[in-house]
TrEMBL record:
Organism: Clostridium cylindrosporum DSM 605
Keyword Transferase tagged: yes
Stretches assigned to coiled coil: none
Keywords linked to the UniProt accession: Methyltransferase, Transferase
A GO cellular component annotation in the UniProt record: cytoplasm
UniProt entry tagged with the keyword Methyltransferase: yes
GO molecular function terms attached to this record: methyltransferase activity
Name of protein: Methyltransferase domain
GO biological process terms held by the UniProt record: methylation
Family annotation (Pfam families): Methyltransf_32
Residue ranges annotated for the Methyltransferase domain, each copy included: 156-293
Organism superkingdom: Bacteria
């Protein structure tokens, strides 16, 4: 290639080097192929080492100096293909003696394999996390077999995950307004299935920058999540073994998640979301033990003498009080069914958006209910409702 073409190539690569530096957490690989006659020589830029491997040699080169390196080498060859592979897309630069071209490819091109839907329990719906597109992810979290089929014992999990993404979709759009990177904190993250799925969906489908923090007391599940993130190349994640009562993030948090945290662990997560002034909170509560042993309401004694009614009322009271306390802290709250009650009775999803400062009316209503039922919910202390 002549010098004029190589100078044009260097300008194009300068632009891409800036993109690499700005989006380093989302870059999968940088590779290139030089061609002279029938001979092809492949090379790669190692992001972790800041080095180039080419022609059997490894050479330390910063990202900023990569355009100079490539354009100088190009003088010795007939043509070049330079590929910057990101999560969900790729940029391909080609150069020869006549011109330099740039093309962007959407990597989510593989069509959905209809054969995976032969099992009647896989719903006939427009999945957001599609088989065919998200196979690497779904295999890594155990939903798919090696052949790309949904495992029979993971059909329900797959449906639940996809439905949760559907429910959080509008929330992501709302909190990302005016925000360069959406940060999501998953409290009691466990095996982090949902965290990985959301990472894929936000970055690769919605094309928004995101960062995830998973916190769980179990060092075992944290190590497992770290390994999965590494295999998937999800560098925009961190997993921390800690108690959410004591955890303090080092960055702003936009959304706090809590799924099936047992009893007052849900309250710990809600309290953390409020203290962090997160834009949104989303939780699926699990068992409700705390208020079951506390609440009293003499007028209902003739009904609540039946244990099943007493337990169901405790569930409603617990999540109702949680919703009211969130409202008192300036959140707009909606409560919906997460999944069918036929699958599990623990199917309530609480969604909260921060819309204002404290709501004194909601706080007054809460105080009246607390006195009426003789209850002292833990969430009150985690939030510190009396603090200005």
């Amino acid at each position: 290639m002549n010098k004029g073409i190589c100078d044009k190539l260097k300008l194009v690569l300068w632009g891409l080097s800036g993109r690499i530096e700005e989006n380093i957490d989302y870059i999968r690989q940088v590779k290139f192929t030089f061609v002279t006659g029938l001979k092809k020589i492949e090379g790669e830029y190692l992001l972790d080492k800041k080095a180039v491997i080419f022609n059997g040699k490894e050479e330390d080169i910063t990202i900023g100096n990569l355009p100079d390196y490539i354009s100088k080498e190009a003088l010795n060859y007939d043509s070049l293909e330079f590929v910057l592979e990101e999560r969900g897309s790729a940029v391909v630069v080609t150069a020869d003696a006549k011109e330099v071209k740039t093309k962007k490819l959407d990597k989510l091109e593989k069509k959905e394999d209809k054969s995976v839907f032969n099992t009647s329990q896989v719903l006939k719906r427009n999945y957001l996390i599609k088989i065919g597109e998200a196979d690497d992810l779904l295999r890594e979290i155990g939903v798919l077999t090696k052949e790309g089929k949904v495992k029979n014992d993971m059909i329900r999990k797959y449906n639940q995950i996809d439905h949760f993404v559907e429910l959080i979709d509008s929330m992501i759009d709302e909190v990302s307004k005016g925000t360069e990177t959406v940060t999501i904190l998953d409290c009691g993250c466990g095996k982090s299935y949902l965290t990985f799925v959301l990472n894929y969906y936000i970055k690769e489908k919605k094309k928004k920058n995101c960062y995830f923090i998973g916190v769980d007391r179990s060092e075992e599940v944290i190590e497992s999540s770290k390994k999965i993130a590494k295999k998937l190349g999800y560098k925009n994640m961190e997993f921390i073994a800690d108690d959410i009562n004591f955890y303090e993030p080092s960055r702003r948090v936009d959304i706090v998640l809590s799924l099936h945290a047992c009893d007052t662990a849900t309250d710990m997560a809600l309290g953390l979301g409020v203290r962090l002034k997160s834009k949104a909170i989303m939780c699926v509560p699990c068992c409700h033990k705390e208020l079951l042993s506390q609440y009293r309401f003499k007028e209902f004694d003739s009904i609540l003498k039946h244990g099943i009614f007493k337990t169901k009322f405790a569930d409603i009271l617990t999540d109702g009080v949680r919703s009211l306390l969130l409202e008192s802290q300036g959140y707009k709250v909606s409560v919906v069914e997460y999944i069918s009650p036929l699958e599990t009775p623990k199917n309530i999803l609480i969604r909260a958006y921060k819309v204002s400062d404290k709501n004194e009316k909601a706080l007054d209503e809460y105080m009246k209910l607390r006195e009426m039922f003789s209850i002292y919910p833990s969430l009150e202390t985690y939030i510190d409702v009396y603090e200005d």
